[in-house]
Write a structure and sequence with these properties.
The protein is an alpha/beta fold and 320 residues long. It has 2 domains: 201 residues, P-loop containing nucleotide triphosphate hydrolases (Rossmann fold, 3-Layer(aba) Sandwich); 95 residues, Alpha-Beta Plaits. It is built from 11 helices and 13 strands. The strands form 3 sheets. A 6-stranded mixed beta sheet has the order 5-6-7-3-8-9, with helices on both faces. α3 packs antiparallel against α4 and α4 runs antiparallel to α5. It starts with a strand and ends in a 5-residue tail after the last helix.
Length: 320
């Protein structure tokens, strides 16, 4: 199966900033791939490279089997793109902007666009300038999908939209994947991503911390609370294939987020000198994201002391 998008050792350097640092991933057809990251993590730079608007400093990228640096127009013909602030001609009506855009695509674009607008109940004679933000987003999505692209790229598409419009976007992503098409979603809306994504990638300061199927990622991440009889006690190191995503000392408790932690590692840790107990609990996607980007799961200053929270109480926490 040919990957829809591939990135190999992708690097993008600006003056005084490394936006991307050796990014590697591959996206298979018929899936929703979610790229999570804070503002400034490099998500938009990644999309600009994928669509041929930015040439990487080094590394390679292909989209639908095409190198976007060599054939950017061919890539753009085969993808649909929606940003958080779609650039639409305000002086045009909803119908006129569909007619105008149809001139760049094969026959069939305009009927598909009109059907989408009708489904969203947006009058064709209404000027773009008179549309709400949610309606503008629906017009942008209709324009992006009318030529039935192989790949739909969404860059923070639901930012500032009401719940009903966000639901429409989520349903469109699921429908695309179900039809064998691919969706690349860039976002920091964790709860929305968790509802639709097949694969999660977390980008932090230009580097991918994790890339894995959502279910596999959540199953592989564990929070450990290691209670010590003395805060100066040194515990055994956690070796490969496990990976420590964050590690902090809170009084007599050592709190770690570990990927691929095994029962054998638990037994070794629990039997170490000075270790009173070892408790495990699974993590939500939001907690995994925080651990990968912040390097800590501690509560903000002013909340109750995390060291005072029992493992039983911690296990009952629900992240929304």
């Amino acid at each position: 199966m040919t990957s829809v998008i591939t990135a190999q050792s992708l690097t993008m350097r600006f003056r005084g900033c490394d936006a991307l640092r050796g990014v590697d991933f591959a996206i298979e057809p018929g899936s929703v791939f979610a790229l999570l990251g804070e503002n400034g993590a490099g998500k938009t730079t990644m999309i600009r490279i994928m669509t041929g608007f930015q040439k990487p400093t080094s590394g390679e990228c292909t989209v639908c089997g095409i190198d976007p640096t060599r054939h950017p127009l061919e890539v753009r013909r085969r993808v649909g793109y929606v940003s958080d602030a779609p650039a639409l001609y305000d002086w045009m009506s909803v119908g006129e902007i569909g007619w105008f855009t149809a001139s760049f695509f094969p026959d069939g674009f305009l009927p598909a666009y009109r059907e989408s607008i009708r489904r969203y109940e947006i009058p064709e004679d209404r000027k773009i300038r008179h549309l709400s933000k949610g309606q503008r987003a629906k017009v942008a999505l209709s324009l992006a999908l009318a030529h039935d692209p192989e790949l739909l790229i969404l860059d923070e598409p639901t930012s500032g939209l009401d719940p009903m419009v966000r639901r429409d976007f989520l349903e469109s992503m699921i429908d695309r994947a179900a039809s064998g098409r691919t969706v690349f979603l860039s976002s920091h809306q964790i709860s929305e991503v968790e509802r639709v994504a097949d694969t999660i990638a977390i980008l932090h300061e230009g580097k991918l911390r994790v890339v894995a199927p959502l279910i596999e990622l959540k199953q592989s991440m564990t929070e450990l609370t290691v209670s010590l009889d003395d805060p100066l006690v040194a515990i055994p190191s956690i070796d490969e294939p496990a990976e420590v995503m964050c590690d902090e000392l809170l009084g007599r408790q050592r709190r770690m987020v570990v990927r691929n932690f095994t029962p054998e590692m638990h037994a070794r840790l629990a039997s170490a000198t000075g270790v009173v107990s070892v408790h495990e609990r699974p993590l939500s996607l939001e907690e995994i994201f925080i651990a990968c980007t912040k390097g800590s799961l501690s509560r903000p200053q002013g909340d109750s002391d995390p060291a005072a929270v029992t493992p039983q109480a911690a296990a009952m926490e629900v992240t929304i």
